[in-house]
């Protein structure tokens, strides 16, 4: 377990309250104190550890726990649907709301500048939730982290899918995740008068065209092609 500096950034009674709220009793309370310590406080108190490293770890643990839960709950869902559900489940807005509901905003050690800003920012609350999950993982392992994620986020499976992202961005993420490289777009046809043009675009990965779209502009046709390509990839176990 990595060393955590031991300056008391969060009072013991607050740590106890947080442990009861999240449902995990820490063998190393210093980990939880660090998870609740904003970098502004650590900058003013150099012997204190802040939450940034724990946030990095907790983000990965949260993603794994949610992905595992959705994978098991929706055995027939395609990759794209699972991805959209995961995005919705771990959105910054939802994490910040979970932090407020759990009362974490009152447990965070902030520097004087952040204290003077009034209400704790949603971005800080999102970071703290991830850091707490990271701290729980280090202290109690993946099983303990699962318990805390489910306690903080509630019924993950009931969260509605996030609206689809820009199809070109979504396609690029999907092809890179599968090791297929970057999509390439090629105009295969343009027609119509200047005031009402029509474009047809193919999108390819490697040497294979995986989607075709059309629209009144190259951009619109590229988006349509990307949407068709995403549908094709979701239906295919091995798009190569």
How would you characterize this protein structure?
With 240 residues, this protein is mainly alpha-helical. It is built from 10 helices and 3 strands; from the N terminus they run H-H-H-H-H-H-H-H-H-E-E-E-H. The model has no long low-confidence stretch (mean pLDDT 88). Helix 6 packs across helix 8 (122-153). The chain has 2 domains: 12-158, Ribonuclease iii, N-terminal Endonuclease Domain, Chain A; 168-235, Double Stranded RNA Binding Domain (2-Layer Sandwich), CATH 3.30.160.20. The protein has a 3-stranded antiparallel β-sheet, covered by helices on one side.
Short note summarizing the structure:
The protein is mainly α. It has ten helices and three strands. It has helices spanning 12-22, 29-35, 39-44, 52-73, 79-89, 92-101, 112-115, 122-153, 167-177, 218-235; strands spanning 184-191, 198-205, 208-215.
By CATH, the superfamily of the largest domain comes out as: Ribonuclease III domain
Mean pLDDT: 88
- CATH classification class of the largest domain: Mainly Alpha
Summarize the helix and strand pattern as letters.
HHHHHHHHHEEEH
Kindly identify the CATH topology of the largest domain.
Answer: Ribonuclease iii, N-terminal Endonuclease Domain, Chain A
What strand order characterises the main sheet? 1-2-3
DSSP summary, beta strand count: 3
- So what's the overall shape? elongated
Low-confidence stretches: none
Q: The biggest beta sheet, please?
A: 3 strands, antiparallel
Helix-strand makeup class: mainly alpha
Gyration radius, to the nearest Å?
23 Å
Strand content: 5-15%
CATH architecture descriptor text of the largest domain: Orthogonal Bundle
Can you give the helix content as a percent range?
55-70%
Helix segment tally: 10
First-to-last CA distance: 42 Å
Count the domains.
2
């Amino acid at each position: 377990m990595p060393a955590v500096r031991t300056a008391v950034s969060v009072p013991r009674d607050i740590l106890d309250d947080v442990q009861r709220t999240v449902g995990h009793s820490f063998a190393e309370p210093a980990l939880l104190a660090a998870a609740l310590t904003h970098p502004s406080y650590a900058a003013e108190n150099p012997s204190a550890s802040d939450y940034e490293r724990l946030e990095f770890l907790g983000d990965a643990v949260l993603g794994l726990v949610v992905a595992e839960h959705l994978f098991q709950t929706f055995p027939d869902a395609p990759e794209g649907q699972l991805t959209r559900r995961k995005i919705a489940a771990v959105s910054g807005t939802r994490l910040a709301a979970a932090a407020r509901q759990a009362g974490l905003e009152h447990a965070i050690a902030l520097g004087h500048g952040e204290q003077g800003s009034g209400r704790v920012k949603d971005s800080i609350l999102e970071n703290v939730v991830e850091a707490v999950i990271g701290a729980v993982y280090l202290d109690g392992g993946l099983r303990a982290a699962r318990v805390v994620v489910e306690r903080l986020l509630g019924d993950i499976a009931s969260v509605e899918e996030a609206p689809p992202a820009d199809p070109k961005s979504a396609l690029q993420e999907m092809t890179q995740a599968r090791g297929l490289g970057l999509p390439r777009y090629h105009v295969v046809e343009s027609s119509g008068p200047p005031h009402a043009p029509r474009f047809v675009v193919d999108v390819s990965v490697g040497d294979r065209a995986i989607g075709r779209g059309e629209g009144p502009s190259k951009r619109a046709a590229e988006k349509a092609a990307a949407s068709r390509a995403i549908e094709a990839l979701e239906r295919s176990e091995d798009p190569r």
